[in-house]
Structure formats: C-alpha cells, structure tokens
Amino acid sequence: MSSLSPHRVLAALLLAALASFALALATGSVSGVLSALVDSSEGAGSRSAVLWQLRLPRALSAFAAGGLLALAGSLLQALLRNPLADAYVLGVSGGAAVGAMLALLGGAGLIGMQAGSALGAFGTLAALLLLARRAFFGRLHTAARVAEEASTAVLLTGVMLAAFSAALLSLLLALAPDLQMRSIMFWLLGDLGGATDLRAALAALAILAVLLAVAATQARPLNLLLRGDLQAFVQGVDVRRVRRRLVLVSALATATAVTLAGAVGFVGFVAPHLMRRLVGNDQRVLLPAAVLSGAVLVLLADTVARTIVAPLQLPVGVLTALIGVPVFISLVRRL
Amino acid sequence: MSPPGRPKGKFLSAQREGDPVNGAAIECRGVRLLAGGRLLVDALDLQADAGSRWVVLGPNGAGKSTLLATLAGARRADGGSVLLGGRPIEHWDAQTLAAQRALLPDGWLDPFAATVLDTVLTARYRLGNADEHGSRIAERWLAHFDCAGLLRRDVRSLSRGERQRVAIATALSQEAPLLLLDEPIAHQDPRHQALVIDELARLQGHTLVASLHDLNAAVRLATHALLLNGRGDWIAGPAEEVLTAEQLSALFDTRIDRLQLGSDSGFFVVRPRR
C-alpha cells in the first residue's frame, strides 16, 4: 500500500541523487577536487583532470547502470507478475558475461568485450523469448490459473538459462589463462573501474532517459497488465504491443548496463522492491522511483567500493550484493 | 439432448431478425469451440438482442467460460464467427472494444498490493487521463454490490466472495453496454447471491450473457437461456421455453423437478441420482 505521497518520495530521491553525486565527486585519494571548478591556483589543473576524466565519467556510469538495471528489473517483474524476475535471475546478465568472456578469450579489447556482453545479453533474452514464446506472446490465457503458470514457465526457463550460462562461465574460466583471471573476476562481479569515457557515460545516461520515457508511456497499460492479460485486454489494452515494447526496453536497458558495468547484481531486485514498499504499485510512480533509487544505490556502492580499502578498489557488484541482500531479506521478512 | 445424427443445436422459438429498435448486441454464426481437441460447441447460432439477459447453463467443462472469452474477443472461435455491432469481433481494436463489452472472468490475479478503489478504477483505462467521473462511478458500483466499506482495503486481504463482488463492480464500472459474466455468484453467501442476481436483473441499458450453476438464480435473472452439453449440442431460446425440468434433467444427467408453491413461478429441486 502506498503510504507516502509520490511527489515527496520522488523529490527526496532527486535530492539523494544530487547528494550522492557530490559525495562521489568529492571523495577519493585526491582531495579538493570539487573546488578545482572555481579554483585557478597551481595544481588545480590536475585536480580538475581527476574530476573530468576519472570521477565524473565513473559517477555518471554508475548512476546510469543502476538506473538501467532497476528499470529492467521493474519492467520484468511487472510483465511476469512475479517479484522474483530480474535480468540477473533470468540469466540475461549471465549471458552477457559469457559473451564478454568469449570476446576476452578471443583476444578482444575493452570495446570487443563490451560488444560481446551486449550480444550475450540480447542472445540470452532472445533464447528466453523463443523458448517461452507461447507463454509470453501466445494467445491470451482465458483462465487466471493458466496465466500464472505461463509466467512461471518464463521464469523457470530464465533460471535454467542462468544456470546454463553459469556452467559455460565455469568452463571458460577453467580454460582461461591465469593472466586474465583477475580482470575476468572483476568483470563478472560488476566493475566500474574501466568507466572513464565521459562520452560513453553520457550516452548511457541518454539511453536511460529515452528508455525511461518510453516505459513511462506504457505505465498505465502496465498497471492493467499486472492484473492479468485477459483482464487487461478486456479493459482495452493491446496486450501484445505493450509486451513487445517493454520487453525490448528491458533488453536494451540490461545490455547497456552490463556493457557499462559488467554483471552487477541485486540492483534490479532491491530497488523496485524498496520503492514498492514506499510508493505502492502504480507503475507511473514506481518506474521513475525505482530508476532513481537504483542509480543512487550503485553510485553510493561504487563510491564505497573505490575508497573503503584504497588504494585497492573493490568490484561494485560485491558492494551492491553486500548491501542488497540484507536489505532484501529484511523486506521479505516484513511481508 | 439431441441424439447423434440430428442437427447439433436447436432454437425453441424463431429468433427475430434484427429488431429495428433493439438490434443484436452480439451474434454468433456457426460458432465452433474446441478445448484440447475436444469439441465443446458446434454450429452455434445465437443473437442476443440489446437489453436481453442470457443465462448459459451446462455441466462442468461444457465450454461456458470458453464461450464467454470468445464472445469477449479474447480468443478466436475455432469455426464460424462472432459479430459485435455487425462487425467480426476480431476486427475491433482493444480500446474501442472495451467501450462495447466488459467481462467478469472466472478468476483474478492480485500479484502485488492494490486498494479496492484502484483495482476498480482499472476499468476506466479506455477513458484515458481525462476521466473525472471515474471514482464516483467506481464507488457507486461498489456500493451496489455491498462493497462500500472496502474502498481502501488491499484486494489481497479480501475474502473470495468480497473479491468477486469487487470484480463485478469493476466490470460494471467499464460502462460497456454488453456484459459478459462468468459465474457472477460464485463464492457468494445466500444474501449476496440474492443481492447480485437482483442487481443484475435490474440493470438498465445492458445486455447480459452470464454463466450460472444455480438453476433458480437462472430463472430469476434470465430472459433467454442457452444450454451447452459439452459435446457440441446446444439449445437456445426464451427462458421459459428452455429452462424446463425435462431439459435441465437431460442436460445435467440427473433428476431435476420443478416444485410449484401457490402462485409462485416455482423452483427447481435437484434430486441425487441413485
């Protein structure tokens, strides 16, 4: 049940986003980075470089990746009417990891790895839709019971695909030369260490904005789809068209996020759940709220990941899981 | 019902050809329904005139829900055609169709929390954001079905009977002239059974097609009746000609008598088959 006014929650999330940006830009081994903006004294140049070439791209990437993962998670949960759905659980992130790994072992550089991960994400989602296409896009299920079984079928197929990509990953890891092990491990856990390209970060942010805008136009029909395909169709929703659009949006969001940050888990899970508690299930509010909270979560997690044991950097995925799992369990216990 | 070799279905009265005032709200022409390869309904010709109240009766698995979903345009007939306003129903787009017909399905999904009011308001989707009367209409129909006190409750906390009445109020809040109701009195206690049937019988400006299992409720509600035996055969016509003890006994393969009490129209009693 919604207990807080949606406007207040969204405003609070925006403030939190700004605050975490400021925090992310100000913290690190070089101090006084923010003051370099207004400072013209000696040494300000190098501090300014830290800001523009390291911290800002990384913060924007973290923000975009978190928002994209939360968007994909919220949409998949609504489309499958199951709070367990998420790109990670459905094997999409795992598929992306396999793709990236194959590219890496094939000798590709960072860009090749990113292309591989995008291909892997799309490939897995395509396989999922193909295997479960009857449950997902088939004719309307006229009995509520059958509709429920159908989305369970999609979910089970996704979980099996995730297991399959996990097995493939283990195989590739066994074959991988030791030299590459560390970078592979980081990528698998989700890592923003390589996100230093400001243009790529801005592009990801733009993709997030476009995808959120598209999803927002489908928020009203999505509210009806939550109550079943048959019910939604009877009340005037073009069920297949809405599904097609939103599946595409979540696929693009996942692919962009894993390309940017690797396989960061739990964000697509925790952010929508947390926001559902606060603002209820109206997708018009839930989608932007989940995107903002997912973005803030990853941004904060990454800030902690790169500073807590400095000069060592932790993969951000470790932090999101360490924060996400206890939060999630405490939420479920209060159900 | 009809033995093999005879025509599949029959009318008990000649149906009027397109009444100029009322006209057909929905029409079946040679409709065939299959489920898992089994023939449920064959060559069904039916014309529900505007303002009529059809009751569909038949044993479990006879195809009542399948027929209602077909009439709603949610599944294609496996043969023949369904016409709404003279046009094949599959030619209507979802949003225009929603203004013409509503359906009470045989179950509901509530995977996430939502208030009763928000749930009923989903019926107003077709009207877009500029729907200023939505809440008033939703509250009115909830009150009609004794749900006024449930407005702010979470639908997941309702009993099945309450949830069903909320679903009926939802179907009515769509304000479509054609109402398709799959077992509207399922899960209702005696008082609410009577209330729901009474409210449905008093609806103005609606055409009703409702499946029921209660024979006496059917008599109270119906102007017309359709019997489906689940093996392809059907009987359709005015209620008083279709809902007879003899035909119902044959339909359900059990002994059903009609008891007369004074000037009452009588009621059906089902005897256990020994």
Number of discrete domains of chain A: 1
Largest sheet of chain B: 7 strands, mixed
Unreliable sequence segments of chain A: none
CATH fourth-tier homologous superfamily of chain A = ABC transporter involved in vitamin B12 uptake, BtuC
Assembly state of the chains shown: heterodimer
Strand % of chain A is under 5%
Which CATH top level class of chain A fits?
Answer: Mainly Alpha
Distance between the termini of chain A: 12 Å
As a percent range, the share of helical residues of chain B equals 25-40%
- Describe the largest sheet of chain A: none
Strand-pairing-aware structural class of chain B: alpha/beta
Looking at CATH, which topology of the domain at 9-106 and 178-243 in chain B would you report? Answer: Rossmann fold
The rough form of chain A would be described as: globular
Proportion of residues in β-strands of chain B:
25-35%
Q: Which chains make the largest contact?
A: A-B, 32 and 36 residues
Mean pLDDT of chain A: 84
* Molecular shape of chain B: globular
User: CATH superfamily assignment of the domain at 9-106 and 178-243 in chain B?
Assistant: P-loop containing nucleotide triphosphate hydrolases
Protein architecture, described:
The complex is a heterodimer of chains A (335) and B (274). Chain A contains 14 helices and no strands. Chain A is 76% helix and 0% strand. Chain A has a single domain (6-333), classed as Orthogonal Bundle (ABC transporter involved in vitamin B12 uptake, BtuC). The longest helix of chain A has 37 residues, at 44-80. In chain A, α2 (44-80) packs across α12 and α4 packs antiparallel against α11. Chain A has helices at 6-26, 44-80, 92-105, 110-131, 133-137, 144-175, 178-189, 198-217, 219-225, 229-234, 239-261, 267-279, 283-307, 316-333. The model of chain A has no long low-confidence stretch (mean pLDDT 84). Chain A has 335 residues and is mainly α. Chain B has 274 residues and is α/β, with parallel strands linked by helices. Chain B has a domain at 9-106 and 178-243: P-loop containing nucleotide triphosphate hydrolases (Rossmann fold, 3-Layer(aba) Sandwich). Chain B is built from 9 helices and 13 strands. In chain B, the strands form 3 sheets. Chain B has a 7-stranded mixed β-sheet with strand order 1-11-10-4-9-8-7, with helices on both faces. In chain B, strands 3-2-5-6 form a 4-stranded antiparallel β-sheet, with helices on one face. Chain B has a two-stranded antiparallel ribbon with strand order 12-13. Chain B is globular, with a radius of gyration of 19 Å. Chains A and B meet through α6, α9 and α10 of A and α1, α2 and β7 of B.
